[in-house]
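Problem 12. The chain below contains 59 residues. Write out its predicted structure in token notation.
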Amino acid sequence: MAKRMEWEREIIDHIIELLEVPNGDAQGVFEVHPFEVAQGWTLGSDPIEVAQKICQAGE
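Solution.
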């Protein structure tokens, strides 16, 4: 389980960089995209790929 948590933390870190937002905002963005996160985990996607997909979904 720790591996999944680390992977999710990396996604949030990438969202912070991509959207230039604070941690709390990035966590909020992350939490409203559970499908993209679950799909990324299942497919073995890199955290940056999932973060980019989440950021594009919000545009």
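Discussion. Residues 2-19 form the longest helix (18 residues). Students who got a different answer should revisit the alignment rule from Section 12.3.
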